[in-house]
Amino acid sequence: MGFTIADFIQVFLTLGVIVVATPVLGGYMAKVFQGERTWLSSGLRPLETFIYKACGINESCEMDWKQYSIALLFFNLIGLAFVMLLMMSQQVFPLNPQDFANTSWHLAFNTAVSFMTNTNWQAYSGESTLSYLTQMLGLGVQNFLSAATGFAVFLALTRGIARKQVTGLGNFWVDLTRSTVHVLLPLSFILAVLLMSEGVVQNFNAYVPVKTLEGIEQILPQGPAASQVAIKQLGSNGGGFFGVNSAHPYENPTPWSNFLQMISLILIAAASTYTFGVMVGSKKQGWMLFSAMMAMFVVMLLLSLWSEYSANPYIGEAALMEGKETRFGVTNSVLWSVLTTSASNGSVNAMHSSLSPLSGGIAMLNMMLGEVIFGGVGAGMYGMLLFVILTVFISGLMVGRTPEYLGKKIEAKEIIWVVAGVLAPCVAVLMFSALAIATPQGLAGLGHQGPHGLSEILYAYTSGAANNGSAFGSLTVNTSFYNITIALAMLVGRFAIIFPVLAIAGNLAGKKMSPASVGTFRTDSLLFVILLCAVIVIVGALTFFPALSLGPILEHLLMLRG
């Protein structure tokens, strides 16, 4: 089986829609976040103002970076505690037709951290563990709020870059509300309706027992899936309503639903580049970021497709279907794997453990690079801007000038925070992976031995620290050891980046704007795109190459030897 014209068309259409939609949605979001009127304002503005009045929020009140950070942390802690309590007491609440028992405390802790950090790592199977109420009120709500939190941090950093000699970065509660009401809710409603029209289930029925053609009884799960699938994809969350995620026919029944979900994976993250360009007064800056992201994405996709369509010497066949999505083909499985690990999403329509060694390694590398190839909603942009600042600093040192980005001088304080934000997730991945490999509790969960076993563990902690949530699926993780350590990795991956980003935003907002001169290094050129991509790849390669060499690279070499 080889790569066909139909496969090429699917890839081209997916990327083409993203390119076309980026300025349309990005322009709309820029208007929303700058408080301008949009074509949805007449219907959604009353809801926004009602929330302000009900919660006692002063829409015009600005926060400095410390106040912004405190509000964000307080809000997220409340969300974590609420989801934990709901999971540990779900049996006493309604909308539990299967009478599922309360979860263990460590599973509740892991899941609450996961959905609060926009990771959506799942150590459970939704259709056999959680009630409809828990899925909707706990996880579904966090899908919206964690995505909106990422938006808020991105907006604070954007204002810090665009404003001069001020302390205010906006208002966290206003940014959270506008992101949810004007962006996430309408898009999710539209996508949910489209998915329901394709057959994605949306009901509150009890599970249905049926008999198969062989006469064996099977239980068909039900539930309000379409609404959660919509926001899990658009909000770069990824948590499936059912255990096998979008490989389940009730979550992803048709080629059209598959196409819609793949588009949704990076739709908002891609459009955020254009939003940034509008808000800083230079659309070329936004297109520069989009170009860097798309260039890295295309390279990763081509490498992954090449690996998957190359013949396996041991079996003598290419494009093996084991673990792939048989309804949609190998290309859709590979495209989804690269999209989801580039977008900090974590949803799957095939088992990543069944990918060829290099394809699985590329999925891992996408996350190791910092989830900046589009990345999560908001999170991808502020992660990418950390690398932009680092690239500007290195470029300034090379030409002997004070580094500047959009008229703001980049000094020691900013670089210290950048290094902290870039390296913290890397440290978490390597330290927790080493701990798992060195302890009986970590090794007990392995589904395979040798380099693939190392890849299972390395992938799990990479996914957690990158706030992605996808998994090889062959590692048993619903244990106290993995639930606690992966939860800690998720917390580091989220807040050890957010707080440096907000500190940088506060520093930049207070600075003067230096006018561009002949010697100013342009950051909207092809040369800068190349330098930016090089810095991202070098940081990821130098940090993780030894671990990757013992995992997917060694497995690939062993495969070549048969």
UniProtKB/TrEMBL annotation:
GO molecular function: P-type potassium transmembrane transporter activity; potassium ion binding
Signal peptide: none
Sequence intervals crossing the membrane: 12-30, 68-87, 144-162, 183-201, 259-280, 287-306, 372-394, 415-438, 481-505, 526-548
Protein location: Cell membrane
GO CC annotation: plasma membrane
Entry-linked InterPro entries: KdpA
Lipid bilayer topology: Multi-pass membrane protein
NCBIfam families: kdpA
Record function comment: Part of the high-affinity ATP-driven potassium transport (or Kdp) system, which catalyzes the hydrolysis of ATP coupled with the electrogenic transport of potassium into the cytoplasm. This subunit binds the extracellular potassium ions and delivers the ions to the membrane domain of KdpB through an intramembrane tunnel.
Protein name in UniProt: Potassium-transporting ATPase potassium-binding subunit
Species whose genome carries this gene: Bdellovibrio bacteriovorus
